[in-house]
C-alpha cells in the first residue's frame, strides 16, 4: 500500500512542477510590457520602470523563474497590483466560496446520477432507460452559461423566489447565504448530471453482462439485491474516477457561473484579474487551480482500490 501511495505522489509532483513552468512562461509570452499594460498608456517611464523592478521584470527569464519558484515554495504568490493584497490570501479567500458551491453540486449530482444510471442499465431499452438517456444528453448539451441564465430568469426575475445579484457568506448568515448560492449550485448540478449518469449506466451495463451476475440471478436473488450488492460495487469505480475529473474541471471552469450570478469566487477573481491585467493574481489563480486539479485526481487514485474490488494494492 505504501508503495502504491508513493508511486501516485511521485507522478503528481512532476505534474505540478510542469504546470508551474507552463503557467510562468505563458504569462511571459503575452504581447506587450506587463508593467506598461498595468499602468496604462498615460504612465510616465519612471513609474513603468519602478513597477518593472518591483515585479522583477528587469531580470532575465531564468532568474525571474527562480525567484518566483522560491517564493511559491514559501507560500508567497506575490501581491495584487490592483488591491495590494497578498495573492495567496485572495486566492484562499475566494476558493472557499467556489469550493462550497462545487462540492455541493458534485455531491448532489452524484447522489442523483449514479442511482439513475444503475436503474437505466437495469431497465435497458425500456421507456425509462430512453427517457433518462435523453434527459442526460439534453443536460450535457446545454451550455453552462445559458442554463444559468435560464434559471436566473425563471427563479430570480419571473418568480422572484431567489436573489438575483449579490452574495452573502453562509458563515455570516446561513439562511440568506444558502439562498444566494442555490441557483449556482443548481446550474452546476444539472449540467453534470448528464455525464455522470451516462458513465454510471455504461459501467453498470458492462458489469451486468458478466457471468457472476447471471449466477446471482439464477440463485433467485431479487433484482434490487443484484443491483446494489453485486453491480454497484463493481460499476462505481469508473464513475468515481469521472467524479474526480468533474470536480477538478468544475473548480477550474466555474468562472462562467460565478460571472453570471456575481459570486465572488476563485473563477470571478481570475476573470477580474484578466480584465485588470493583474498578472500576479492571474499566475496565482492558474497555479492554484492546476494544483487543486492534480490534488483531486491524486485523492481519486488513492481511493480507487477501495471502490474497485478487482484492484489489488501492494
Automatic annotation (TrEMBL):
Q: Where are the transmembrane segments?
A: 12-30, 97-120, 132-157, 177-197, 239-261, 281-304
Keyword Cell cycle among record annotations:
no
SUPFAM superfamilies from the UniProt entry: MetI-like
Q: How does it sit in the membrane?
A: Multi-pass membrane protein
The UniProt record lists the ABC transmembrane type-1 domain at 95-304
Q: Which Pfam families match?
A: BPD_transp_1, BPD_transp_1_N
Q: Where in the cell is it found?
A: Cell membrane
Main subcellular location of this protein, as a coarse class: membrane
Which CDD domains does the record cross-reference, listed alphabetically? TM_PBP2
Q: Which UniProt keywords apply?
A: Cell membrane, Membrane, Transmembrane, Transmembrane helix, Transport
Q: Which domain of life is it from?
A: Bacteria
One GO CC annotation: plasma membrane
A Gene Ontology biological process term: transmembrane transport
Query: Which residue stretches, if any, does this entry annotate as coiled coil?
Result: none
In terms of InterPro entries, this protein maps to: BPD_transp_1_N, MetI-like, MetI-like_sf
Family membership: Belongs to the binding-protein-dependent transport system permease family.
In its UniProt entry, what is this protein called?
Peptide/nickel transport system permease protein
